[in-house]
UniProtKB/TrEMBL annotation:
<feature type="coiled-coil region">
    <location>
        <begin position="541"/>
        <end position="601"/>
    </location>
</feature>
<dbReference type="InterPro" id="IPR040521">
    <property type="entry name" value="KDZ"/>
</dbReference>
<feature type="compositionally biased region" description="Basic and acidic residues">
    <location>
        <begin position="869"/>
        <end position="879"/>
    </location>
</feature>
<feature type="compositionally biased region" description="Polar residues">
    <location>
        <begin position="850"/>
        <end position="868"/>
    </location>
</feature>
<feature type="compositionally biased region" description="Basic residues">
    <location>
        <begin position="883"/>
        <end position="892"/>
    </location>
</feature>
<protein>
    <submittedName>
        <fullName>Uncharacterized protein</fullName>
    </submittedName>
</protein>
<dbReference type="Pfam" id="PF18758">
    <property type="entry name" value="KDZ"/>
</dbReference>
<feature type="region of interest" description="Disordered">
    <location>
        <begin position="850"/>
        <end position="892"/>
    </location>
</feature>
<keyword id="KW-0175">Coiled coil</keyword>
């Protein structure tokens, strides 16, 4: 492609000025011609003050006009008078909305995008030596006089590409009125990436302040146009670079988004969960939907909502970060309900979710609504445990629906396979939702596990925590911190000492205690099963007796009434009484049907009467059962509150987590008040009545040993070994130590993955740059920039890993290993070049000496000619010189030096 010189570029900009001047001159000539078309009337027939003949003066006979034999003067005077011709002109309504101007601008840039991307590559290559400091356009020549000339040239690549060659980004594809330097746009791009709250408008205002110019509202819009073009050019250049590197396959970014999670090595141990992810929705990124005014007639609004006023825009986000609307809408409410109809419902033994009424997005996760004024209400984001983005979904005209997490989990399972754990604030319920959809068999086959995040977990019901909190789930941990895990392991001697004092022989006891606690809380949440059928029969008899009493009262009220057939009020009262009597009789019939059904199912040979001992005994049991149910409900709430208070007052609990637990406790306190009122009513109904408990007394209980109410229940939890403060402290320490040991194993594997990825990626990019340099220097330079972007912190990582390895308790290794994937492996002639680390040298200094000697041998071999050296080069390189091989060996040597050298 021909590169424009600075003189040619100035010709491009001068051409716009020439065309504008030409248009202005043509307009002046046309105005003069219209003026000269007026008749040259004699001065003796015209008044000096008139300044010309008007149509009205001519029609009124005020002035005289000489007419020629050819004629036409009279008609010309009429046509030249704007006031006369205005009455015959038809005014047409301009219905253009310009809604497609964004679409037209995008299409204009899309045609030139490839040429602009190529020009951008040339511009970046041109500033290779001086960097962005040399990216300024050339200053105008200082001449005393100037001249305007018309330049005729061919721009087969478009005017926009010519601007990009000079480091300028135009705001329009054809006739831009403003251009912005690429250096300024790159500055904003880097700044906004570090500070997302910095929007375009304050940035443009600051630029105006720097130049001492007043801010104009249209400037931010023009800057936005240029910034969009700049991002499209960068995306195109990045796509060309990834294509050369072979990294443009489907879902390549998703499969390699995090080295610690995805860059698996040969021979590494299997983890319980191969990947830990989390996801949640955010409803703060709302965007209004602009609409036309509602249709209104003379009779008022017709109920028709106005159409959209949004500008048409067909652009889509490139890459695989965002899920498409089609992927998300596959899990809409209607489709999920259709899928649920084809799935066998859960068995009766499955427990109801204890947290269903505590989380709003768990209650209506399939029917969430959002104000129609918003087009986008936020995003639904999925991250790995290291903070890298997996997928993003736009929440469009809805709240946090279940279709968003379902779509994300579907994509994750199809990409990464089995043994994935996902943390979600309603993870306990979300696991049930997955099992009820067509995604359930896949999730079960791939051993997917939905859990509750550590941050939200302590606001869930205690029974839910025992199965979904990361502390009690094998393979999970609450922090990616090697030293923190080692600090938790330091508590192991204290745990053993405490076990000795409590006479606990084995740590396996804690697992049985955890199961026993879960069984205890499950029974508290259920109604007692003993003698349930007899209690139901007694309650049915009580209801039948109440309905019969109600019917008797209605009949007695009807008998004392006097009716007068001629009185309308009496007729209306008679109809009302008949309705009451009919409804009372229906209630009696329904209650009698329930009694008959229970007598057949139990069975009951002799129906009970209030005088029978069975009836009186069942009445006593009913009052006691009602008391126990209310007490169990109150106990479950208070015990859960006590456990959560224990977490909130525990050391190393952050301020935000304490506040979060505190808000959950406030909500739970209202439930405790309702349960306490129910308990007091049941206690008063007993014979003899039990004492009334106040809310203040409940709030004073700080642990199970102080819960005096438990002595009145059918189960006294204080007799359980796991209910004492010391036992619970030791059990908590035990499970944290287990999770810390699992985290040490995971971190040893992930650290080696990161080191291997740094090693393989650097060698791979260096080789690709050397190979591309001969065929396409522009893309070779882009590979170098990509290399600098990918590995700026490699040295810092290696220094931190070395400091961690200096800890005598470090059990991992910092030596790279061979990856299972060959995408970043260096291949020469089809064979992977063996790495020095594959010799499994245990001593790092020995590895350094081996790498140094290898580099020396290759250097000597490169300076010697002979058949031996030629065979050596052919064996290892097949057409590649010894220079590229020495470069790879020096790269490995530099990595090993980073491991061994002091910081």
């Amino acid at each position: 492609m021909e590169v424009l010189s600075h003189q040619q570029a100035r010709r491009v900009m001068a051409l716009d000025n020439i065309r504008a001047s030409k248009r202005k001159a043509e307009e002046e000539v046309a105005a003069t011609a219209r003026k000269n078309r007026r008749l040259d009337l004699s001065q003796d027939t015209l008044d000096d003050d008139d300044g010309g003949v008007t149509a009205q003066d001519l029609l009124n006979g005020v002035v005289q006009v000489d007419l020629s034999h050819a004629g036409g003067e009279f008609l010309q005077i009429l046509l030249d008078d704007p006031e006369y011709t205005a009455q015959f002109k038809t005014k047409y309504k301009d219905c253009r909305t310009r809604r497609d101007r964004v679409l037209a601008r995008n299409e204009g840039f899309r045609i030139q995008l490839d040429a602009m991307a190529r020009s951008y590559l040339e511009w970046r290559k041109s500033i290779e030596s001086g960097g962005l400091d040399t990216a300024d356009p050339p200053p105008p020549a200082d001449v005393g006089t100037g001249m305007t000339v018309t330049v005729v040239d061919t721009f087969w690549e478009g005017v926009a590409a010519a601007f990009v060659c000079l480091g300028l980004i135009p705001c329009a594809p054809k006739w831009p009125s403003l251009v912005i330097t690429t250096r300024l746009l790159e500055l904003y791009h880097k700044t906004s990436a570090r500070c997302p709250s910095l929007t375009i408008q304050p940035f443009v205002k600051s630029i105006c302040d720097v130049h001492g110019l007043p801010y104009r509202p249209y400037l931010w819009e023009q800057f936005s146009f240029c910034y969009d073009v700049y991002l499209n050019i960068c995306d195109t250049a990045c796509a060309l670079t990834l294509a050369v590197l072979g990294c443009d396959t489907s879902r390549w970014r998703l499969k390699n988004f995090c080295a610690a999670c995805t860059y698996k090595l040969k021979g590494e141990a299997d983890l319980i969960f191969s990947m830990l992810i989390t996801m949640d929705g955010n409803n703060l990124l709302k965007r209004l939907m602009r609409k036309e005014d509602d249709e209104i007639t003379d009779d008022g609004p017709v109920g028709v909502v106005g159409g959209s006023r949004e500008r048409l825009d067909d652009r889509v986000v490139k890459g695989d970060y965002y899920l498409t609307c089609a992927q998300v809408d596959h899990w809409t409410k209607d489709r999920i309900q259709e899928q649920m109809q084809n799935i066998v419902p859960c068995s009766d033994s499955e427990e109801p979710n204890p947290c269903a009424m505590r989380w709003t997005n768990m209650i209506n996760n399939m029917t969430s609504r959002m104000w129609s004024v918003f087009d986008e209400t936020g995003i639904f984001l999925a991250l790995c445990q290291h903070g890298f983005v997996l997928l993003v979904a736009d929440m469009i005209r809805s709240g946090e629906l279940s279709k968003y997490p379902l779509a994300i989990i579907e994509a994750v399972l199809k990409t990464f396979g089995e043994n994935i754990a996902c943390g979600y604030d309603i993870g306990c319920k979300f696991g049930t939702t997955i099992s009820l959809t067509t995604l359930g068999p896949m999730a079960e086959k791939l051993k997917f596990r939905s859990v509750v995040g550590a941050f939200h977990g302590h606001a869930h019901n205690r029974l839910c925590q025992l199965t979904s909190l990361p502390t009690y789930v094998a393979g999970l941990f609450h922090c990616n911190n090697y030293r923190q895990a080692l600090g938790i392991l330091d508590d192991k001697p204290a745990l053993l000492a405490g076990m000795e004092n409590e006479k606990i022989a084995d740590r396996q006891v804690f697992a049985s205690w955890l199961k026993e606690e879960g069984d205890y809380l499950s029974k508290l949440s259920k109604e007692p099963e003993e003698e349930k059928e007899h209690l139901d029969y007694y309650q049915a008899l009580v209801n039948l007796q109440a309905r019969e009493t109600e019917l008797t009262e209605v009949l007695q009220e009807w008998q004392v009434k006097t009716s007068d057939p001629s009185d309308p009020e009496a007729k209306r009262a008679e109809t009302l009484y008949n309705n009451h009597c009919r409804r009372a009789q229906d209630n009696v019939d329904r209650a009698k049907a329930v009694v008959d059904r229970l007598e057949e199912s139990i069975p009951i040979l002799n129906p009970w009467t209030p005088s029978m001992p069975e009836y009186q005994k069942a009445a006593e049991r009913s009052r006691a059962c009602s008391y126990r149910q209310s007490l169990d409900e109150l106990e479950a709430l208070v015990v859960s509150r006590i456990f959560e208070l224990t977490k909130m007052n525990m050391s190393q609990t952050g301020y935000k987590l304490r506040r979060h637990i505190g808000k959950a406790l406030q909500t739970q306190s209202r439930g405790i008040r309702r349960a306490l009122d129910k308990y007091n009513l049941a206690a008063h109904a007993l014979k003899p009545p039990h004492p009334i408990i106040t809310y203040e007394a409940i709030m004073e209980y700080s642990f199970l040993s102080q819960f005096d109410l438990l002595r009145d229940t059918r189960q006294d939890v204080r007799d359980r070994p796991w209910s004492t403060p010391m036992a619970r402290y030791l059990m908590d320490k035990h499970f944290k130590i287990l999770r810390a040991e699992e985290e040490i194993t995971r971190l040893n594997i992930e650290i080696r993955r990161v080191i291997t990825h740094l090693h393989d990626e650097e060698c791979f990019l260096c080789l690709k740059e050397n190979q591309t340099q001969a065929t396409d220097p522009l893309l070779a330079y882009q590979i170098r920039l990509y290399h600098l972007e990918r590995t700026p912190y490699a040295e810092i990582h290696m220094r931190r890993f070395k400091n961690l390895a200096s800890n005598p308790r470090f059990t991992g290794t910092l030596l790279p290993e061979t990856a299972m994937s060959d995408e970043l492996q260096i291949k020469d002639g089809g064979d992977i070049v063996p790495t020095v680390i594959s010799t499994c040298l245990s001593n790092k200094k020995e590895a350094l000496e081996s790498a140094t000697s290898t580099v020396t041998q290759n250097s000597d071999g490169a300076n010697t000619t002979g058949s031996k050296d030629s065979n050596h080069d052919q064996q290892h390189s097949e057409g590649k010189g010894a220079t590229s091989k020495r470069t790879r060996m020096r790269t490995r040597l530099r990595i090993y030096r980073n491991i061994l050298d002091k910081p």
